[in-house]
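Notes continue from the previous slide.

Worked example: a multi-chain complex. Inputs as given:
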Amino acid sequence: MARCEVKKGMFILKECSNFANQTCSKCSKSICSKHSTQIEDEVFCVECGTAKKKQQLRSLPARQRRNRNSVHDEEYERWMTDRNTHYGLWYYGIRDDFYHDSQYSPFDEQDYSGFDAESGQEFYDDTDSGGFMDS
Amino acid sequence: MSRKKSLEVYNSLDDEQKEIISTKKISGNQPASAWLERLKKVALMDHYGDTYRKNQTYAILMVFIGIAGFILTVICLANEFYYGLVIPVLAVIGIVLIYKSSSKFNKMDLTNHLRLFIVPLLAILKEESRKKEKIDLEINLNNPCEKDNIVETIPNSNKKYPKVKTTFYDLQWMSGKAKLQDQTQLHWTVNDLVRKRDITKKNPRGKIKFKTKYKVKHNVNLKLSIPKESYELVKNPNENQPVNGAYKMAYVSSDRFHVFKIRSTDVSATLDESVKLNHFLGTITKAYKHVKPI
Ligand SMILES: [Zn+2]
Ligand SMILES: [Zn+2]
């Protein structure tokens, strides 16, 4: 069964690797329920979903846009009020802005030679029992 | 509406969460997911509360009752309806009750650091550290502009207007320790140095006006201990100091770690803002930009 291909993390990226049960309609990545989002009947991965929401906000008429906060503010509020919402969208919104502002390119899990061998098992423990169960 | 929502959230809090609101202090050692569980609702309550306070509904209501009471009283007196004199008494009682309820509600206010900085940071640390890794936090969400935090007062020295009284406050509102998934140890503190200026102005028509202006420096102190078994140095940090003084960095090599100490400052013009998350994350990258995984 396919594993979720979304990369988690801010400084060091690592693949989520929960079992995937969906596919992003934009980038075709396999995604787990925790890293998927539905916008107007289409399923996206959290990264493409964030980009889509940003684009939607940009295409609003200027007057409407001014009255609304950035995408991750809205998504943050939604997460605070809804027990079942994952923080995916605002987290990835913040990450996107951060990479853009700081011109920082994160390390990738695969950059480390000794890293995986030593702690690989724990990594997989780390992926919240979730995905499947969460939905 | 937001007041009702805020109180609804308050009533659903457990004792530990209610204690955060009364003491405005948080401390403990637990995994990021447990921290988020504990703080999310408190942040939500503060979010609704702030919306209500921002709309100044209390003040508007008090003014409305005052004016309505006055007009009704005048009408009653003009019509020699003396029972109407009960109206100003009721209006005063109403205003006092609203004032009391507003000050009780205002006491529940926390600084926005929780909602704007601490909770999002914990979400980031959750993704950045192993699931059971505990995060150590000491947090103070009291308003920094309180007597105990005064570090300096400069009385007004102008004989003419504008007259300015300046007060400086300093409050360390957060310190924390976390271990990231690459075994990097992160220690940090954030303190707010606030400059409050009470300004009394006189406009050309001779009218006196009061204004308070703030400038807040959010000072971030970070210590990153990056394990040598996973990283090597790519450039000498001590030769790479920024020219414009945007931040200060010191590097020491210990037995097992590359140790970076970094200080940086983010500035805001109101008490409502917090240190920007991007600023804090950017400060962390200052260290990571000097190493490379092996
Ligand atoms: Zn995608
Ligand atoms: Zn996933």
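Summary box: Chain B has two domains: 1-25+34-111, 143-293. Chain B touches chain A through 27 residues (CB under 8 Å).
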